[in-house]
Amino acid sequence: MADAGTLVTATALEDADRRKAWGFVAPALLWTIAFFVVPFAFMAAMSLWKREGRDLVRVWNFDNYTRFFSENALFQGLVNSLEITIIVTVISVLLAYPLAWIIAERVPKRLQRMALILAILPFWTSYVVRSYSWLLVLSKNGVINQLFLNIGLISEPLELASTRTATVIGFVHFFVMLLTLTIYSNLIQLSPNYRRAAADLGANAFQTFWHVVLPLTLPGIVTGAFLTFVLCIGDYVTPQILGGNNELVLPQIIMLQLGRRADFPMAAALSIVLMLAVTVAYLACARWLKIERA
Amino acid sequence: MLRQISASVLSWTYLVLVYAFIFLPVAVLVLFSFQDGRLPVPPFNGFSLQWYEAVFADRKLMAALGNSMVVALVSSVISVLLGFLAAYALARYKLPGSALQRGLLIAPMTVSYLIIALGLLSLMNALHIPLSLMTVGVGHVVINLPLCFAIIYASMGDHHINIERAARDLGANDFKVMALVTAPMLMPSILAAFFLSVTFSWDEFIIAFLLSRFDVTLPVEIWSMLRSGLNPKTNAIGSLVFLASVAVLLILELSLFGRTKKQ
Asked: A26-52, pLDDT tens digit by residue?
């Protein structure tokens, strides 16, 4: 009897504990469900409705999606987004890897932290201001054009702003900093023994890099490249300020649907397409990414 | 020997070039914020503080600055509090479906801000909730909660459990254990989560743009200043924001990371 009594108390305590734990975790879960899951589900449902005048018509069909694939002005947005994102990701990795390597290998240990902080310092200008400051550099009467005109390299100012090149430069500037961080943190975790072993086995510097160092730092590269992809393809500010209205990317088209036409269902459908692009990229990188274990 | 020297020269040249690229726009921004003229482009006409005076005299800009601070502080406090409680529950108790709960709490991190903003905007419209600083703050908690949760959860080490148990044996209730034992032990990560949230919210544009109407935050106000073209006043406010962020970063570096290094 005494045993049964203890048992009852024990389960009662556990229940109380469990209720308490649910109480602690509930506010965060409720917030996420109310302000993330529900709005997202609502948006997904809305992408299957349509707009008529100022009203939403709740008929369920895939019209928005078929329109997206058949209307060139819309579909081209996805193509532009993908092209720009891939170009930016590749250039950023190619620029950031040597920088991370030099900081990890050539810069004296006690200065490395300083070098990293310096490298990400412009990260801390306002996000909108960062694109604006590239405009100061690239515009028709901006720093680059004035410099080139003065030294006689060109006779007419170049059209640098409001081009795809400007968008790419703005993005690369941002993501070189980010990728340098992820690749650097991977590089300094490498034990020097691997390289010593490769050298002992007769590999030259290039072979050591290609067959040993590069594969071992691949997770860092992929993590950074994935972050670059996600942040780049979903960004509205940089293409809008630097790219102008010549070649619209998907987020710009989403904002147009909202701002000028108040077409929420179409904007929702385009957002779902954007999500799918990110999901595909995630699946492609999933082997190296460990986000879900955070 | 010669190869080594040339490799070294090559690396340092590369380092300098990339740093020049990274610093070019910021340097131009700050330099031409002191421009004595109407355009923030070469030639540099001379040093003047008039644009900084114009910034401080601009009521809309100062109101936006205040709004940004309120939204950043309030949304970060909420994010850290909810994140801490959730991390405590999931690290200390065995709850059914805890992996799923962790996944759910982290999920907003993987979705672009534009989509989060659009979802919230559609819902607010459908429910006829007017847009305000409050709706912006709600959105900022959505993006910062995963971050706070992840940072604090990662630092809830098992070695803290015994100290918490000792506190309980000495008669502390749950609230006391959490507030007087667990939170102080995790203070470095709690503060890191808080300051990161503050800077993210302070700087966030698209959610603040879509979910505000009359009271706007600083990035949204700067955005509307851009419509009037290049202007040294934009340089001045941009430089001030940069300075403020660097100051926060320095405080963080000196107070938090300096302390962990000593330990």
From this structure: 999 999 999 999 999 999 999 998 877
B79-90 pLDDT per residue, tens: 999 999 999 999
Task: Give the pair of three-digit tokens for residue A95.
Answer: 């620029």
Residue with tokens 């209720």: A19
Q: Is B57 within 8 Å of B122 (Cβ atoms)?
A: no
Contacts of range A25-30, beta carbons closer than 8 Å, 24 or more positions apart: A25/B85, A25/B86, A25/B89, A25/B90, A25/B95, A25/B101, A27/B82, A27/B85, A27/B86, A28/B82, A28/B83, A28/B85, A28/B86, A28/B105, A28/B145, A28/B149, A29/B86, A29/B101, A29/B104, A29/B105
- Residue A271 CA to residue A234 CA, distance in Å, equals 9
Burial B134-169 (b: 16+ CB within 10 A, else e): bbbbbbbbbbbbbbbbbbbbebbeeebeeebeebee
| pLDDT tens sequence across A190-207 | 888 888 888 888 888 888
**Cross-strand bridge partners of residue B47:** B35
SS in 3 state form for A212-234?
Answer: HHHHHHHHHHHHHHHHHHHHHHC
d(CA A247, CA A194): 47
Find tokens 């550099």 and name the residue: A137
In this complex, how many residue pairs, one in chain A and one in chain B, have their CB atoms less than 8 Å apart?
241
For B230, the closest chain A residue by CA position comes to: A136
Distance from CA of B50 to the nearest CA of A (A): 19
* Length reported for chain B: 263
φ and ψ at residue A163, rounded to 5 degrees: -130, 170
The Cα A148–Cα A168 span in angstroms is 21
Chain B residue numbers touching A24 (CB-CB < 8 A): 85-86, 88-89
In sequence order, what are the beta bridge partners of A57?
A50
pLDDT > 90 in chain A, percent: 43
E-assigned strands of chain A?
A: 50-52, 55-57
Please report, for residues A49, B154, B186, the alpha-carbon distance to residue B180 in angstroms, rounded to integers and kept in the order given.
Answer: 52, 20, 11
Residues across chain A = 294
Question: From the candidates A129, A230, A233, which should be mutated to test the interface with B, based on the most B CB atoms within 10 A?
Answer: A129
Closest to B189 (Cα-Cα) out of B50, B97, B91: B91
pTM, to two decimals:
0.87
CA distance B93 to A12: 15
CA distance linking residue A74 with residue A71, whole number of Å: 6
* Separation CA B96–CA B104 (nearest Å): 14
Structure tokens of B140? 């900022």
Q: Give the three-class secondary structure for A115.
A: helix
Angle between helices A63-70 and A264-285 (to 10 degrees): 70
Beta bridge partners of A50: A57
